[in-house]
Amino acid sequence: MVGIVLVSHSRKIVEGIRELAAQMAKDAPVALAGGTEDDRLGTDMNKISNAVHDVYSEDGVLVFFDMGSAYMNAQMALDFLEEDGSKVEIVDAAFVEGAITAIVDSGLNKSMDEIKADIASMKLGKMP
Amino acid sequence: MAELNQVIGALNHAADIIENNKQHLTELDGAIGDGDHGINMSRGFSFVKKTLDEGSFETAADLFKKSGMALVAHVGGASGPLFGTAFLRASMTLKDKTEITIEDYINLLKASIEGIKMRGKSDAGEKTMLDALIPAYEAGEQAVQQGKNTVEVLQAVKEGSEKGLKETEKLVAKKGRASYVGERSIGHQDPGAASVALILGAIADYFSEA
């Protein structure tokens, strides 16, 4: 199953998305990286690395992010990853809709490419 | 210009100056951004201090790399990856040096600029830290060409960054949270540029007082 990582400035946002998605897909591997290490609003490279590590498999990992520093910290996390980085991708998608679609898809055992095709129409142009 | 213990001294001084200006930086950010820049920078640089206190460093590259990783890991906002990348790129220019010359310093500023441009997909004139860093580098480069001594070059870098910072008041923010308020960002200094000016100023002051 494709692992899904949710990166947000807010812990509550990622917990909310996971809760919403769990109504439809309880078994999908989802890891959260919301807020900073001292639980403020912000993003944290180490949290993102750990989240990728937690859901990593040969099937790959898709990383969703909300805005701003979330993307830069996700990129840095990938730069320093211990796992095979070619199987981990940051995706440009509306955060809530994209993540929930991907989580449900992963629960249905869809591949990385199939999931990416399903969320292709949700791009927001937030990866300059 | 500096042996490793002086580089550590200068970075510790910069960390203290950031700490002393935490409130000011947060106020600048509160006006046009999310109001956490001072707290984020203070937190990040407190971990740089910790790294410098507890670590032992074979080379200048090692020192900058570990400091950069402390910033990346602990800042918590966009400044983490941006200042972190600046330090990591600086580190790559220093390799196995155990002493930094003024030319090395100017080179590492240049490498930092390239790193920030890459990481932030940004350029001059977008009301970011680059708008203090680029004029600082240019002023320093010019001072070196003119054969100025180390303290004079460091002073030129400091003044370049302060001038750049002042100019950010006229700019419309194109990057980061301040871009959400667009035109309303005019009249305010950019907090990231303010941090750059504080750090480069602290480094200049450290060596002119030494």
From TrEMBL, chain A:
Enzymatic class: transferase
Domain PTS EIIA type-4 span(s) in chain numbering: 1-128
Highest taxon above the source species: Bacteria
Reactions performed catalytically: dihydroxyacetone + phosphoenolpyruvate = dihydroxyacetone phosphate + pyruvate
Gene Ontology molecular function: phosphoenolpyruvate-glycerone phosphotransferase activity
UniProtKB keywords: Kinase, Transferase
Documented EC number(s): 2.7.1.121
Subunit structure comment from the entry: Homodimer. The dihydroxyacetone kinase complex is composed of a homodimer of DhaM, a homodimer of DhaK and the subunit DhaL.
Function summary: Component of the dihydroxyacetone kinase complex, which is responsible for the phosphoenolpyruvate (PEP)-dependent phosphorylation of dihydroxyacetone. DhaM serves as the phosphoryl donor. Is phosphorylated by phosphoenolpyruvate in an EI- and HPr-dependent reaction, and a phosphorelay system on histidine residues finally leads to phosphoryl transfer to DhaL and dihydroxyacetone.
Protein name, as recorded: phosphoenolpyruvate--glycerone phosphotransferase
Organism, as annotated: Sporolactobacillus shoreicorticis
From TrEMBL, chain B:
Phosphoprotein keyword on record: no
Record-level Gene Ontology MF annotations: phosphoenolpyruvate-glycerone phosphotransferase activity
Keyword list, A-Z: Kinase, Transferase
EC number: 2.7.1.121
Domain Cyclic nucleotide-binding: 137-196
InterPro entries: cNMP-bd_dom (IPR000595), DhaK_L_YcgS (IPR012737), DhaL_dom (IPR004007), DhaL_dom_sf (IPR036117), Dihydroxyacetone_Kinase (IPR050861)
Domain DhaL: 5-205
Keyword set includes Membrane: no
Broad enzyme group: transferase
Extent of the signal sequence: none
Protein name: Dihydroxyacetone kinase subunit DhaL
Organism this protein belongs to: Sporolactobacillus shoreicorticis
